[in-house]
Amino acid sequence: MNLILLGAPGAGKGTQAELLTKKLGIPAISTGNMLREAMRNETEVGQKAKNYMDNGLLVPDDVIIGIVGERVAQPDCANGFILDGVPRTVAQADALEKAGVKIDHVVSIEIDDNVIEARMTGRRVCSKCGESYHIVANPPKAEGICDDCGGELVIRKDDAPETVQRRLAVYHEETEALKGYYERLDKLRLVQGNQPIEEANREILRVIGA
Ligand code: AP5
To answer: Does the N terminus or the C terminus of the chain have fewer Cβ atoms within 10 A?
Structure first.
């Protein structure tokens, strides 16, 4: 099964992608995580992406289309994958179509803008593996330490309140149109994001028929 998770920054795409990976046994592909790793490793892609990401703007489509095309061609994607945070523009969605990437369901995690800021203030991410936590809704077992790899938990640079506002504006201007795009293809499934993590996950599994 090939899935896309759509939603505003902080809607819970990464959190749900991790849970779905465990339940469905297919990999989650997060362009945000891939770009952050490229930045940590100071690759060419990382250098191209840095200014856009730090300022809450979208990284150019050609960079994204290149890294996603390579990733979905890997053998671990043969039985399906979960795209988290991509596509984010109509050009990216068109590129997937053109490459013959078959999509079964597009799950849009719906959440009001006014809930987002509180979520972002509480988010902590692992500086080593990128795993995401929330100090109240999804705390690590030991404060400040990643459950998975023992890395230090930090605040993401683009979670500063003014950058979150810009990311939300970019979502409404450039990404939300994809809901109409996939509705016309009869692939859009809406899920309420403002509910406990496990309940949102059950709703996703129900709408994709898993
Ligand atoms: P990316 O890393 O994809 O960020 P985003 O889309 O802004 O999404 P977030 O990671 O902030 O939120 P999320 O929806 O995954 O929520 P999470 O599960 O973490 O992208 C970052 C940047 O990279 C972009 O700004 C852009 O520059 C660039 N980029 C990436 N992809 C791109 C693309 N395709 N094209 C161009 N540029 C691209 O949850 C948030 C917090 O809430 C966590 O603390 C979590 O524990 C908590 N939480 C989750 N669910 C719940 C719940 N149900 N109740 C309470 N708390 C919850």
So the answer is: C
The DSSP symbol for 30 reads: E
Ligand 1 surroundings by CB, under 6 angstroms: 7, 9-15, 31-32, 35, 52-53, 56-59, 64, 85-86, 88, 92, 119, 122-123, 132-134, 137-138, 158, 167, 193, 196-197, 200
In tens, the pLDDT along 75-108 reads: 999 999 999 999 999 999 999 999 989 999 999 9
Distance spanning both ends of the chain, measured CA to CA? 9
The span from the CA of 146 to the CA of 129, in Å, is 9
Identify the residue whose tokens are 């990437």: 101
* Contact by Cβ (8 Å): 91, 174: no
Catalytic site residue 50? no
